[in-house]
Specification:
Layout: H1 6-20, E1 32-34, H2 49-60, H3 65-79, H4 84-101, E2 104-110, E3 113-118, H5 127-135, E4 139-142, E5 148-152, H6 159-171
Parallel strand pairs: 1-2
Antiparallel strand pairs: 2-3, 3-5, 4-5
Length: about 170
């Protein structure tokens, strides 16, 4: 686990279990999230290392909003009200799933902007006109080798909400 990272470890473990059960495993695009928020499980909330690993694994395996809500309900039942850092971790999980749905492979914060890198094999340049109509001068594009869109964030305190709103809009 130390060599490949936690997310990769969970993904590999999930694939092996599915293969053993005879379930066909489809290669899933991993999404990198590089934004400036604290997202982890504090020791003051869950002090047991094994329980933390279980929660991290459950979060990494979330595929729907319902999966995330089930984890939230379980965490609140077991440990009480969640700290901000854990809520942020769940928001990152939401962003990852939204990004997968619209073929975004990386979301990276750059000061007061967020750059959304698209899968070059699945990128649809027709999205440009739709985004210009909504975001006007707050958006820039590059359709080069690695297509990306840069969105200027007006209120950086609402970074996560802006990212989710953008991904939801692209999804429509």
């Amino acid at each position: 686990m130390e060599q490949v990272g936690y997310d990769t470890y969970c993904k590999l473990l999930d694939e092996v279990v599915k293969e053993m059960q005879g379930i066909e495993v489809q290669e899933e695009q991993d999404v990198q999230i590089d934004i400036n928020i604290s997202s982890y499980i504090p020791d003051s909330y869950i002090d047991s290392g094994s329980q933390k690993i279980e929660v991290y694994q459950n979060i990494a395996l979330c595929r729907t909003e319902e999966d995330i809500r089930n984890i939230v309900d379980e965490l609140i039942d077991r440990y009480g009200e969640m700290p901000n850092e854990l809520e942020n971790l769940l928001e990152v999980a939401r962003i990852k799933e939204l990004a997968k749905q619209v073929n975004v492979v990386k979301v990276a914060q750059r000061r007061e902007s967020v750059v959304f890198y698209f899968d070059k094999e699945k990128y649809n340049p027709e999205i440009v006109n739709k985004l210009i109509q909504k975001y006007e001068f707050n958006i820039k594009f590059s359709n080069g080798i690695e297509p990306y869109v840069t969105l200027k964030i007006r209120d950086i305190t609402k970074l996560v909400d802006n990212i989710k709103e953008f991904l939801e809009f692209v999804k429509e």
